[in-house]
Backbone:
């Protein structure tokens, strides 16, 4: 929404595409709050979550967003993400719920020994669905965008899940105009994606325009790194397990996407400010999920994970 | 490869400026903000639709380097263009999806140039074409109709044009593709344009902008075409960047804000949140709230960044009003001097999107803007053959049918004709039981204006009538199989109430069919109408203060729910006389089961017509464990316990 200072000329289209994307996201969030019983916002602490949270605050101002935040903590999150998460919860005054699979962690599941698909299912997907069930949430906001991945491009803004949280791509409701049908059966839940129509560049442009607070990991800094299996990993804490011959080297890096630190690749970069990152985006032209081991483990992996209940 | 691909070899103007804008616009630099255009591409794979979309993504430099390298490699391996880049491979996720058995109805793709960001609705597939295209077109400001220059205007082209017109898209581009295969002949192009124009005039369609292109070679997509010097109009991307979008049109209309949510963080603040559907609003503006018709003034336009001096169409905002007036989700806040109409009967075009056909007369949820009401659809006046545009008679609407019919809502709603406003004229219908979105509709006009048929304000209210009888009105709605014992128990209930000096009336299925409903048979449609009429009569009697008892098989949940919705909360009590089919059939008091089993009676509930048992009845009577007298006593206790 433009501020009073940016009031448009009367004849031109007064709204730019970020205004329209923001207005659409606000509209979606308000529909969910008006038509569902117990919504929650999945907060992954990444840039998309940051934008989603910022828009939620705008949508319900002066009230606080009328739903809690839910973070699925794998136990291998970057320390900076946890700090940022707690800071944002305090700043917004929203309730923060943290879900973690204690049983799996106690049983020794970890990103070094456990095969990635199994690790992801246990620490993220099953933790998420268990948390949704335990709290009885009937709608959950997620920050996914359609431009991220093929499977996402096919998904509706309101994505219905059966009792086992699985996504059935063959059985989706048509979405016409901006009329969302939020009616569901008992036991069904909805995943809602207010940023469906945003691109990665839109997210960065919006972060810059609105000065949305981000985890420092998105900005380049000298960090202890090593190359492993095609990923440039950052050694975030002392639990990192080195293979023989490996050792951490300082490099200037930043992240385009964030996840569990032993599974998320950084990119070499000197871009330490938003304008520098935006400038770099038009030259460094690789797709953003290239940095995620989680999405490379098998072909059509996103579709498979979604069928299991992943976001 | 590069020297044969203009888009790869030289950077076009849009590509260059976008590179600057990517950073410049985003950080609020001199390049300035970009607008947004949503468009839909119509055409089959054979027309080169995938190639065109791929070409646009490529020319706008949306593709990452790794994607481009992969594309070049894929083109040599799987492409259909020899050594050249096959742009269709970029968007043809389709074949892979078919192998996985997944039908995508609409896929959305994104790219941007210096001046605009674009959202492309890509609707592949032939089978569900109508449903898919209507979905994609519903949010589009512009449509590109793709024609193969060698084939000209086909039936399919006309069908696409009709659907695009139906969904109210005013900006239409006729992209005549594969001009390289007809020798870039101006004569071929103008003949196709003339034929299409004649068809468009017959439809009453807005005039199309025709552009001769070669998606494969890139001619007139981003860059102009040296091979077609006779064409002096804009290239396709230039046109997409410059065309005036509907946002500007909505801005010129009177102010409307459908209220989504009432923001009440404290007793001091009451804000009305919603997306401005049309016009502009400033603090101090007089407004009218519909459907109540009460007026007030806008006090503030509240945002997290501070109050606004003005909010415009397309913005999500929060208003506060100067007066405490009735306003809730579903209300429309409008310019006081030019409010929208309010009505409860309409003519509409309806596109049916569900495997189960329309049940004429059945109650569906109708969602329009932020208003959700119960509505029924009359038998269609006609359906349209989308290939010939002929009007055909029809009794219902099947999947992918487009028909014109009357729609009635159970209460008046604020609306605008779809031709004026998508936000207040477009609606969806939702099945009350499956919750599926079964249809999209576009309102034409009100059949009678609600303001002309004001409910006669009655001085003696329903409460006053009931008070005189010293009772609370109610409808005891018995449902169950034929022979389950409905009539028997209903009779006992009425006798009991009568002895207790309660004023009652028993509506019995067989008796009503001798009079009020003697014109109705036992088809599904007639059964629905039968229940609708009984429901209306029961409502009138409840208004008169009576305790109404009805005994009808009423096999369908949707109709029972329709009657429930007619009555005030708590006055409808569903009484499920739960008798298993074997038991009812063994009793066969009227000998009907025997006839039905012998095939002499069609559409008999339980035999060749379904019975949908209530999911959550207020009262359930198991006649295999309870006598009729006990059942009647229990029902009366439950009813009067409610007092």
Residues:
């Amino acid at each position: 929404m433009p501020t009073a200072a940016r009031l448009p000329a009367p004849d031109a289209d007064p709204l730019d595409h970020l205004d329209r994307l923001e207005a659409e996201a606000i509209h979606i969030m308000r529909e969910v709050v008006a038509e569902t019983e117990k919504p929650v916002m999945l907060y992954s602490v990444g840039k998309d979550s940051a934008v989603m949270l910022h828009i939620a605050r705008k949508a319900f101002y002066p009230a606080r967003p009328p739903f809690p935040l839910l973070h699925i903590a794998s136990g291998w999150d970057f320390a900076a993400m946890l700090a940022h998460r707690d800071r944002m919860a305090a700043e917004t005054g929203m309730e923060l719920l943290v879900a973690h699979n204690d049983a799996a962690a106690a049983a020794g599941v970890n990103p070094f020994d456990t095969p990635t698909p199994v690790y992801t299912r246990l620490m993220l997907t099953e933790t998420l669905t268990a948390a949704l069930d335990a709290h009885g949430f009937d709608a959950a906001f997620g920050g996914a965008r359609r431009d991220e991945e093929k499977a996402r491009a096919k998904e509706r803004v309101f994505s219905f899940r059966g009792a086992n949280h699985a996504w059935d791509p063959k059985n989706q409701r048509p979405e016409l105009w901006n009329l969302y049908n939020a009616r569901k059966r008992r036991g069904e839940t909805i995943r809602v994606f207010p940023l469906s129509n945003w691109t990665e560049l839109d997210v960065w442009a919006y972060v810059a325009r609105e000065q949305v607070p981000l985890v420092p990991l998105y900005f380049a800094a000298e960090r202890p790194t090593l190359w492993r299996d095609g990923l440039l990993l950052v050694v975030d804490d002392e639990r990192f397990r080195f293979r023989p011959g490996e050792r951490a080297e300082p490099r200037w890096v930043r992240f385009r996407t964030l996840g569990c630190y032993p599974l998320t690749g950084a990119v070499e970069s000197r871009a330490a400010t938003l304008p520098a990152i935006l400038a770099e985006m038009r030259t460094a032209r690789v797709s953003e999920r290239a940095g995620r081991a989680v999405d490379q483990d098998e072909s059509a992996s996103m579709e498979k994970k979604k069928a299991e209940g992943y976001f | 490869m590069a020297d044969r691909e203009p888009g790869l070899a030289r950077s076009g103007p849009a590509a260059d400026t976008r590179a600057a804008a990517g950073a410049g616009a985003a950080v609020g630099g001199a390049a300035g903000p970009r607008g947004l255009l949503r468009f839909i591409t119509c055409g089959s794979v054979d027309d080169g639709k995938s190639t065109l979309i791929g070409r646009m993504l490529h020319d706008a430099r949306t593709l990452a380097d790794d994607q481009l390298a992969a594309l070049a490699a894929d083109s040599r391996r799987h492409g259909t263009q020899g050594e050249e880049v096959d742009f269709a491979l970029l968007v043809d996720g389709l074949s892979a999806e078919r192998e996985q058995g997944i039908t995508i109805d609409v896929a959305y793709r994104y790219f941007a140039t210096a001046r605009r960001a674009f959202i492309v609705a890509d609707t592949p597939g032939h089978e569900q074409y109508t449903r898919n295209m209507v979905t994609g077109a519903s949010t589009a400001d512009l449509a590109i109709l793709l024609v193969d220059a060698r084939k000209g205007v086909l039936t399919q082209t006309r069908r696409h044009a009709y659907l695009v017109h139906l969904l109210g898209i005013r900006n239409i581009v006729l992209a005549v593709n594969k001009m390289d295969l007809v020798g870039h002949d101006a004569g071929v192009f103008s003949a196709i344009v003339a034929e299409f124009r004649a068809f468009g005039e017959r439809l009453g369609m807005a005039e199309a902008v025709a552009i001769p292109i070669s998606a494969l070679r890139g001619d007139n997509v981003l860059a102009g075409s040296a091979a077609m010097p006779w064409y002096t109009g804009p290239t396709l991307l230039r046109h997409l960047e410059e065309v005036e979008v509907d946002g500007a049109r909505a801005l010129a209309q009177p102010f409307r804000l459908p209220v989504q949510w009432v923001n009440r963080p404290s007793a001091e603040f009451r804000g009305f949140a919603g997306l401005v559907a049309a016009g502009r609003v400033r603090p101090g503006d007089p407004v009218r709230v519909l459907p109540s018709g009460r007026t007030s003034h806008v006090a503030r336009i509240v945002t997290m960044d501070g109050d606004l001096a003005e909010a415009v169409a397309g913005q999500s905002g929060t208003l506060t009003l100067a007066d405490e007036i009735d306003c809730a989700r579903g209300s429309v806040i409008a310019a006081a001097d030019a409010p929208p109409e309010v009505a409860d009967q309409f003519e509409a075009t309806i596109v049916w999107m569900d495997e189960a056909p329309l049940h004429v007369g059945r109650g569906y949820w109708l969602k329009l803007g932020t208003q959700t009401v119960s509505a029924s659809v009359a038998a269609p006046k006609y359906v349209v053959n989308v290939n010939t545009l002929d009007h055909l008679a029809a009794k219902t609407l099947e999947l992918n049918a487009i028909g014109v019919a009357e729609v009635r809502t159970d209460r008046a709603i604020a609306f605008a004709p779809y031709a004026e406003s998508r936000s207040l004229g477009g609606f969806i219908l939702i099945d009350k039981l499956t919750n599926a979105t079964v249809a999209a509709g576009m309102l034409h006009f009100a059949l009678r204006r609600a303001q002309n048929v004001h409910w006669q304000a009655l001085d003696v209210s329903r409460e006053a009538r009931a008070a005189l009888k010293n009772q609370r009105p109610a409808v005891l709605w018995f449902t169950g199989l034929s022979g389950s014992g409905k009539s028997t128990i209903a009779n006992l209930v009425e006798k009991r109430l009568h002895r207790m000096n309660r004023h009652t009336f028993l509506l019995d299925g067989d008796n009503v069919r001798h009079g009020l409903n003697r014109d109705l048979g036992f088809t599904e449609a007639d059964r629905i109408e039968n229940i609708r009429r009984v429901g209306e009569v029961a409502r009138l009697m409840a208004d008169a203060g009576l305790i109404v008892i009805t005994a009808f098989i009423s096999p369908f949940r949707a109709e029972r729910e329709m009657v429930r919705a007619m009555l005030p909360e708590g006055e409808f009590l569903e009484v499920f006389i739960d008798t298993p089919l074997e038991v009812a059939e063994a009793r066969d008091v009227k000998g009907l089961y025997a006839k039905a089993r012998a095939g002499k009676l069609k559409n008999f509930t339980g035999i060749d017509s379904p019975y949908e048992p209530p999911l959550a009845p207020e009262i359930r009577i198991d006649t295999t464990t309870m006598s009729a007298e006990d059942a009647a006593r229990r029902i009366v206790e439950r009813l009067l316990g409610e007092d």
User: Anything to note?
Assistant: Chain A touches chain B through 72 residues (CB under 8 Å). Chain A has two domains: 15-202+301-307, 212-295.
